[in-house]
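Q: Protein A?
A:
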Amino acid sequence: MENIERIIGLDPGSSESGMCVLDNGQIVAAFNLNYEQFWIKVTNYLLNRNCTVVIEDIRPYSLKLTPQVIDTCKLIGEAVYRLRNDCGVNVQLVTRFEVKKWVFDTFPVIATEFATKKIEKKLFDACELLTRCEIRVDTNGKPPRKPSFIHVDDKIVTEAMKYFYRIPKPDPGDGYRYGLKDHSWQALGAATYFTEKKSRLTYGSH
């Protein structure tokens, strides 16, 4: 048990939160939890001595201040305080910005493919006045942007995690392996980003 390095990824939400547990880089379990379940489940998985909790944090860039966002911020603050002070756990915060950029840079083929489809859905046919050629433009009449990390969404993070951990598509009627679904995919993304970043830093220090 002491030789296991456990990373618990958390994606807090106003009504439901995602959680994923990695032991030595391998997925152990994943959950989608309400508030009461959240604390019980997290506490149960803190039994490992070498444990780090990675929480996806919220930053203010182009984010609407909705009641859901406010509740999520409160939960993040409560989680950081309780885990650090009551449980004595190493807590690390990673931003969604960091995870999105890492996914786009690390899985460019997957990210570009899905981002292109996402961009294409918002385009319209138009006529270029000078050439009379048919072109595609966005709602503002401008040419589409090239895919970048800003286009990375939950779907792209999920697809990247499926590829990284070689998680096959389940049979009809079955769920994904480890219990992965919804918010727990994003928790896995945060935990995996932290693990890979830590590995690069450790390797680079030698």
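Q: Protein B?
A:
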Amino acid sequence: MSELQAEAGDFEEVEFEEIAETEQPDESEASELAPEKEEKVSFTEEQQRVIDDIVAKKTYKMREAERQAEEYQRKLADLEAKQPKETRPEVPALPDPYDDDYAEKIRQRDEVIARRVEFDARQRMTQEQERQKAEQAQYQKQKDLEKQVDSYAKRAVQLGVSKEDLAQAGQEVARFGIGDDIATFIIGNDQGPLITKYLAANPTELDVIARLDSISAAVRIETIIKPKAAQLGKRKPTAPDPVETLSGVGANPTKGPKGATFE
């Protein structure tokens, strides 16, 4: 290597080192330029064990509930599949008396007839039980309705609606043929008598209610009609209380300034 090449090599090495030292930021600048790292929350081993235990227990309960629900559905499906759907036995026709197995066929036919009689008896029993349940439910429904009507009449008195006015308003509302659900809703409402009275006096509104489904009618009654109907109730008197009359001995009319006279 020539002396000129050696000197050039030394120059390039020095220049590179100076540039590297000049461009490299100090530690404070580097910390500012570096992206912020998300602070990681750490737990002690004991805390982590507690957390893992809680998560495991909750996960187990969820899985167990799901498993039990699936098991229940599976058993129910299996039970329904295994449950024979009983049908009314069909009695075969009388066999030919000349058949060799005539006696056996007669015996089998008699067995089918007996099963058919038992089937019909079970069907009648089931129908009777269903009828009794329906009658009991209807009876209970009627008793509940009677209680509601009795409470409805008592509220009418408290709200200042006479028995005659309530009966007349009720007939007018019933004439529009509102559904049983809507009627029950009105009877059970705390402002029911006033709502009935308001609807009877406003046939246009009553016609709207009669045309709505039960839910929409209940919403309209509660939000629009009830506030207006409440104004028909008893109003507190606005006149002031009478002035209290004072009693007792008043001023002596014989006393007064000298020369004064009292008539």
